[in-house]
Every structure is written in C-alpha cells, then in structure tokens.
Design brief:
Blueprint (H helix, E strand, L loop, with lengths): L1 H11 L3 E6 L3 E6 L7 E4 L1 E3 L6 E3 L6 H20 L7 E6 L5 H14 L4 E6 H5 L8 E6 L4 E7 L2 E2 L5 E3 L3 H15 L7 H11 L5 H6 L12 E3 L5 E3 L1 H6 L14 H11 L2 H8 L2 E4 L8 H13 L25 H10 L7 E3 H7 L21
Parallel strand pairs: 1-6, 6-7, 8-14
Antiparallel strand pairs: 1-2, 2-3, 4-5, 7-15, 8-9, 9-10, 9-11, 12-13
Helix pairs in contact: 2-3, 5-6, 9-11
C-alpha cells in the first residue's frame, strides 16, 4: 500500500514518468530515481479475445493502438499508480524503432491518455549518461536482436551501426532444440525455457567452446534437476551450449564479436582506439554469467586473425561497469534526462494536437526552436 500512496504523491508533484518499452520487458518508474519502480512483461490480456498477447506482435496500426491502450492503462493505473492526464512522460526507444510504432504510441499517449508532454530519447544515447562520458561503443543485447551503435562526443555514428538477430530468442530456441533432442516427449513453455536459461545456463570459455564438438577428453558440467509440476533433468551440455549461438559466425561470417569489430572499422581512424576502450554492455542477455569475459576473449582472438589483423590495429578492449544492472541501464539514463530542462527535445500536448505528428529529430524542419516550453 505504501508504494501506491507514493505514486499518488508523485502525481501531485508533477513527476516525470519514464518508460523503456522493450520487446520482452518494460521498465517503468520516475525521473530522478536510481532504479525503476518495476519491470513487467511487454504483454497484455486482450479483453475481447481473452488471451495474452505481446505488444510487438501486432497485426496492423489499429491493432497496435488497442494493444497500447490496454497496456499503458495497466502501467499507469496499476503499477505506476498515477493519473496520466497532463503528466510528463519520457519514452526510450532504439534508433531502429519503426515510425509506425512511435507515431501510434504518441497518438495513444496524447489523444487517449491526454498526457502533458512527451520526450522520446535514444536508448543507446542516454545509456552513456550513466557513465559521465560522451564516448562509448554501446552494445544492446535484448530479446529479439543485438544492436550496436558507436557514440563519439555525444553523437551517434550511424554509418557504423550493426544489428543481428542474436539475442535471448536465439538462446531460447537453442535450449528448446537441445532439450527436445535429449527428452523428445518434453514440451517446454516459453516461461520455463527462460527460467532454465536464467537459473542454470552460462557462457563457457572460448577454450572449452572449441572442444565442444569433440567428444573425447571434455567432460560436461554436472546436470541439474528442474523442479516443477513434473521434475526433469537438464543435461550439462545443454547448460554449456545454450549461449554458443551468439558466438558462432553465420554464412556471412557475422556474430556478436564481429559486429563490434566491423563497427570500429567503419569509424574514422582517430575514433577507433577510444571506442575499443569504452565498450558498454546493456540489455538483459549481457547479464549472463561469463558473457563479458567470453566477448573479450573472442575480440582478442579475432583481431589477431587474418580477417582483421591488417585492417584493424587495435589490440586492447576495455569494458565499462555501469552503476546499475545491465537490463535497466538505459532506463536509468532516461531517468537522468527526465529531470533536465530540455524544451527543444520534448513535444507538448498543444504542439502535437496542432500538427498531429511526432517530430523527426534527423529532419531539419523539426530542429527549430519550439514556441511552447513544455516544462521539462
């Protein structure tokens, strides 16, 4: 009950609500706080179909509008416990977010919930504000994909961005396949697969990874029992091989380590060493045990190989330690920006209702001083 009354008090104090709507999970809370009030799945129970649907599995714009109305109502009134009318909202988004999703989200917030103002920020860009630096190579490994964007002196180097479908979904598919081979009659729900990944799986070392295909001389880690309605055993090789899909290069010779190296190569020479020594990992998948250590060993191996030894002379890689868990580092950056006075970066309700569009900050038409200060 205490949390509910705190939310009502924040509404009266005109606090800024910060949303980080991810493909699998949504972080929400208030600007100026060190951590989100909660992390919930980005899904909602449809009142008509009586089934739970993921927000990003929409059919068309109208379907997305209805899903967002139900989901945001759930967020505002049950979790944040705040009236959305005239409140200030900060939304974090990837630079790869579709215009359809952004425009529909703004329409729901302004026209249905009648919020006072909206500020849309790049999740990669705000993440580095938690470090007190303006230069970093930000790798976000979430549920659907891994997205990498170099940021130099506060400016995203868009020509060097990289993205691959190597994230939690790929790990889940790998676990489901290996478990199916080991226990053909076992059917695993998505919730159980994710629980197996978080509780029992880990990222093995590069040295052991090389030997995984060789059955001689390599003993697997111990198997573990998974408690549930029906207890079953998770073999050691499943626990160890679950994350290997992130490091195996595909037909185009691409993987998470090559994403980083390719992005550095595409940057000007004077940026490369600085970016290599300022790598920031965000997203829940990077929290896996052994992820950062394996990534560093893969990078050191690749830069010495024939593929990169001539075109990239960087031989040292350093990783930042963010002041929060990796799964909500971007949210924390948004909470920092939310307490700043940035009138040129926000959209007031009056301006939205007048133009009926969301400004595109890459468009020079929209980089004009707004006539109305939205109060952020």
């Amino acid at each position: 009950m205490l949390r509910s009354y705190e939310g009502i008090r924040y509404a009266s104090d005109k606090q800024v609500v910060v949303f980080d709507i991810g493909n699998a999970y949504t972080k929400f809370g208030f600007a100026g706080e060190p951590s989100p009030r909660g992390i919930i799945k980005t899904e909602v129970k449809c009142p008509e179909a009586k089934e739970i649907r993921r927000i990003f599995s929409y059919k068309d714009t109208e379907d997305l509008y209805q899903l967002l109305v139900e989901f945001l109502h759930f967020l505002f009134f049950k979790h944040a416990v705040i009236s959305p009318k005239d409140v200030k909202v900060v939304v974090l988004e990837s630079l790869l977010t579709t215009t359809q999703f952004r425009d529909t989200l703004a329409k729901v917030l302004f026209r249905h919930f009648e919020i006072g103002s909206l500020m849309i920020l790049s999740s990669h860009l705000v993440a580095i504000s938690t470090l007190g630096t303006e230069t970093a190579l930000v790798l976000d490994v979430g549920y659907e994909e891994a997205v990498l964007i170099p940021i130099f002196e506060g400016i995203p180097v868009l020509k060097a961005w990289q993205a691959l479908p190597l994230a939690s979904r790929a790990v889940h598919d790998s676990i489901r396949k290996e478990m199916k081979d080991a226990l053909p009659d076992l059917e695993l729900a998505d919730r159980v697969v994710e629980d197996i990944k978080v509780r029992t799986c880990f990222v093995t070392t590069r040295e052991r990874s090389v030997k995984l295909g060789d059955e001689d001389g390599l003993s697997p880690p111990p198997a573990v029992k998974y408690p549930g309605v029906k207890t079953f055993e998770i073999p050691g090789f499943v626990r160890e091989k679950a994350y290997e899909v992130l490091w195996e290069r595909d037909n185009d010779n691409l993987s998470i380590p090559t994403m980083i190296l390719d992005a550095i190569v595409k940057c000007p020479v004077d940026m490369r060493r600085v970016l290599a020594e300022n790598i920031l990992l965000v997203g829940g998948t990077t929290m896996a045990l052994g992820f950062a250590s394996r990534l560093k060993s893969e990078l050191l191996y690749l830069v010495s190989s024939e593929l990169y030894s001539e075109k990239l002379k960087v031989r040292k890689f350093k990783f930042h330690t963010a002041p929060s868990y990796a799964n909500y580092t971007s949210w924390l950056g948004g909470a920092i920006f939310g307490i700043a006075d940035l009138p040129l970066r926000c959209i007031s309700k009056e301006n939205y209702l007048k133009t009926n569009r969301v400004p595109d900050w890459a468009n020079l038409m929209d980089n004009q001083k707004l006539p109305t200060n939205c109060g952020l």
